[in-house]
Amino acid sequence: MSPETYAQVSNLLIPTATVIYAIAMVSHAMEWALGRTAVAVKSEVQDQVLVASDGTPAAGGTTDGVESPAVENAGRTARMDAASRIGLLLTWLGFVLHLGGVVTRGLAAERVPWGNMYEFSITASLAVAIVYLVFVQRYKLQWLGLGVTLVVAAVLGLASLALYTPAGPLVPALHSYWLVIHVAAAAISGGAFTVGGLVSVLYLVKARAERKVLAGGAMSASLRRLPSAEAMDGTAYKVLAFAFPLWTFGVLVAGPIWAEYAWGRYWGWDPKEVWSLVTWVVYAAYLHARATAGWRGRRAAIIAIVGWFVFIFNFVGVNLLVSGLHSYAGV
Predict the structure, then answer these.
(1) Where is the chain membrane-spanning (predicted)?
(2) Taking the complete model, does pTM exceed 0.85, yes or no?
């Protein structure tokens, strides 16, 4: 096919993937909505058993056609499981279309597809989906589906509506194989930062719910389906520990080497370079605090969330709002 045809295919696949991700998001939202109204059943011993007038349990645990809370809760749980599975399947479908859109964009431009803000947006959001789906297989992170599909659909929608740039040649500064190494590492680590940030947000929600239970309160069924707060804290650490060395190499090693090739200096305190360093410092503080001061839980989660927002500002704000050598990334 010609580059023009590849471009047309990409321009069709990316919006289609956006719609599929959005539908997956709705499915996961239904899962959470069902959980908010589900009947809380603390244990089998505490299940309500309706007894017939002769002292024997009523058939099916019901009387006068009214289902017991345990039966009602089981039905809602089944519907929540179905919504979760549908959301995950749709995420896989969206990912396949998304991947096809990124690949055909590269074929249309006859280069790697991350030479401008539009291309980096569709590639970075693809990295978020990849990291999520990999960790779903390894750590059963399907409970993160609502946050991930929301982020990916939002980024793709913004890219299609506000950042789209026709496929074309790279600006001279981008003609280097270090571009491939630098941006690929930044995109993958950025995807991991996003997943880690979302896990940290849900950690705070789950930890608060657990404290309410200890004080005698109840927990919604959707939150009961999440792992324990302690397990989520460990998951966030694993994701961010994977991302940090990749960011270090891709941004603070490959990036300066590329800068020397493109501009004749390794480091020039360009706004993008400064905020990349700030991002590195925040995540270094996160890992250092866990390793030396034993920070766990809430304090670590807050640092991880701050790091995610710093990364987002570095990704969006610096490119679009601040003038510098990386300003071409916003066109």
Answers:
(1) 12-34, 86-108, 120-136, 143-165, 177-205, 239-259, 274-293, 300-322
(2) no
